[in-house]
Amino acid sequence: MSAEPARRPPPEDESSPASGRASDQGRIDHALHLAALREHSLLSLSELSQNLSASPDLFHMADLVLYNLMGRFGTAKAALWLLSSGDRTAVLIRAHGISQSLARATGAACEATLLRDAAVDLQPVPKSLIGEVFGTDAGILAERTAFEVMAVVTARETPIGLVALGPRIGGLDYASLEMSSLQASCSVLGTAIQNLNLHARMAGNNLELRRANEELKELARLKSELLSNVSHELRTPLTIIIGYLELLVDPLMSREREREIMPIVVAEARKLNDMVGRLLTLSASSQGKLVLQMETGDIGNSIRLFCEERRPLINSYLREFTWSIEPGLPPVRFDRTRFMQVVEALVENATKFTPQGTLLRVVVRQVPDGARTAVAIEVTDSGPGIAPERLPHVFESFQQGDGSATRTIGGMGIGLSYSRQLVEAMGGRIEVRSELGRGTTFTISLAGAGTGAPASGAGTPSR
After folding, report:
1. 75-89, 148-162, 381-395, 400-414: which has the minimum mean pLDDT?
2. CATH 3.30.450.40 occupies which residues in the chain?
3. Which pTM value belongs to this model?
């Protein structure tokens, strides 16, 4: 008896119970995957928001958001541009994975679109639409830089910048959920930049108020000195002169007595003239020559506090500002208030006369000075530099590096010429070196006030 052939089970169609269970499981797996993506995006957004709110530096903030996005989406290329508050040009803040020149050109090609009112409503733009949305040149440059998506950064319904991301590792496309996550990140960044700019404006206003207060204090001091001189020095000779003149007009005054009085009147008049001359000298000194209040102290800590206070304001001009203070600095002899005005003058010089995107850096370090140790304070910028023929004259009579008209720096009117006078009056020296196209460095040197023992609370590097 032959064996009956084994029967294969009939194929399951989509209407069968087993097929339905597989389809349901697929939908569940897909829903779980989407839920995981949403959770990951929310966690990344929360982390990004916390980090941005704690950062006082625009360029550090740019690194935070780009590294966050690159890690979240798995890409090795990213860039951030911001529109300047003045001429509204796209300034490259950070670029990772692409050349600086290509990144700057891409930002410039997108400027016109960012300046339109409709840009605030733009959703993240994929690579296929970059040329259509931002223009043909932007599309060509996006191909060269391999950007896959661009998203507008907005604050208070105003476009303020642009973020671009490269291809994802593994060739995955940017899904709609990830596009929404990118847009949310740009909104978080826009809010953080707006808050940073508000803080910078507050710092700027406080600085102006402080300068005005210093000027009012100086005026009050000069007024007090003037009144004191008038009261104590001018009143006495005037009283003597008036008293003797009243005697001279007396008709009963003898000729012999008149001859005795006249030399006294002349002497007091000459004394009065000398005092008026001294007052004029005082007035002249108030316009330039100041009495220094010297002290021995830690200059590194003063500069660190200055840099921390000024960084938001300098960042608001789209200049990157960093500093480094060597630990264990020796104490120096200096007038703290006047010296910080010199440092402020040099930093403001670098801020005013360099293009956006420039790096400004303050370095404080020990240097050898014969048998003792000196402290060097360097203020460096990566700007256009000073022409060689102008370099020897930068400290002369407030001249600018470009040879234009008189300039004053800061609310107290401190120019480079007077800065040198102040530094030299403190026993130091100030020098400048520059190279066209590579930046300028001003260096102030102050001799250590002792054997080189470190001052208490010596400064430490900022980062």
Report:
1. 400-414
2. 33-199
3. 0.61
